[in-house]
């Protein structure tokens, strides 16, 4: 009897020790809306406006952007939480991988923009980080979570629409735009790379046939891309129209950026 009691005590102790870990993972179901305000920090008016604007964005561009607020992501880092949730929701087109998930964790004081393969050239990691930090400073730090989430969503939506060559009706321009130094830096290094390639090509043309490395008659230069971001996957299969939609596709590679305050 004593052995049985001791065994039960050990089992309950183990379950008690494991219970915080088991409860730490926060799971959020995709209910088909564009805004899931589980932290209850977005005003009804702004939530309704975001629903209309993000539905129009998807209808006109195919890109699917959703916003999620939670009180906390638990013991899970916001990056891992956003990555896992985005994979579960499978936002964007199945082939285009053009999904975006914005996660705001109020008590953790963190925000994260998670992007996919197809949308990362439009919303590169540096841009996501810069805009997140700017909105966190202007809005979240003072407790304006509703205004901040709306502003960050508008910045992303307007940038996507502009890149796709469409105009969103009734969608206001963002109040502010953080200057993106990273894009200027990318253009600078792109010009440097093009100049290097140009001089290599000119130098190889002066060589006699067969004198360079490789096969007969000269050097071969592999095509190189210096624009956009790679290596990020964000799943697919979104619908169109108002009132929200469900995703239906693929994987994620961790693209995006965030901030804390």
Automatic annotation (TrEMBL):
Alphabetical list of InterPro entries matching this protein: TPM_dom
Signal peptide: 1-23
Top-rank lineage group of the source organism: Bacteria
Listed transmembrane segments: 188-204
UniProt name for this protein: TPM domain-containing protein
Organism expressing this protein natively: Rubripirellula lacrimiformis
Pfam families, A to Z: TPM_phosphatase
Keywords assigned: Membrane, Signal, Transmembrane, Transmembrane helix
PANTHER family: UPF0603 PROTEIN YGCG
Occurrences of domain TPM (ranges): 35-156
């Amino acid at each position: 009897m004593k052995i049985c009691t001791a065994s039960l005590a050990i089992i309950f102790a183990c379950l008690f020790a494991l219970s915080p870990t088991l409860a730490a993972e926060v799971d959020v179901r995709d209910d088909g809306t564009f805004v899931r305000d589980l932290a209850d920090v977005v005003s009804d008016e702004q939530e309704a406006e975001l629903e209309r604007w993000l539905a129009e964005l998807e209808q006109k561009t195919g890109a699917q952007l959703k916003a999620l607020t939670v009180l906390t992501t638990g013991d899970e880092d916001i990056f891992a939480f956003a990555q896992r949730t985005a994979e579960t929701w499978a936002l964007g087109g199945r082939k285009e991988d053009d999904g975006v998930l914005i996660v705001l964790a109020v008590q953790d004081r963190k925000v994260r923009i998670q992007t996919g393969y197809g949308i990362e050239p439009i919303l590169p990691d540096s841009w996501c980080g810069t805009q997140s930090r700017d909105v966190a400073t202007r809005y979240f730090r003072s407790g304006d979570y509703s205004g901040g989430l709306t502003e960050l969503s508008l910045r992303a939506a307007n940038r996507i629409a502009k890149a796709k060559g469409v105009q969103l009706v009734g969608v206001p321009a963002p109040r502010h735009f953080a200057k993106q130094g990273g894009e200027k830096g990318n253009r600078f290094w792109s010009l440097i790379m093009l100049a290097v390639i140009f001089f290599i090509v000119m130098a190889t043309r002066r060589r006699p046939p067969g004198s360079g490395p490789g096969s007969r008659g000269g050097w071969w230069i592999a095509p190189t891309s210096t624009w956009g971001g790679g290596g990020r996957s964000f799943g697919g299969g979104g619908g169109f129209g108002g009132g929200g939609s469900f995703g239906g596709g693929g994987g994620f590679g961790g693209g995006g950026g965030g901030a804390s305050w």
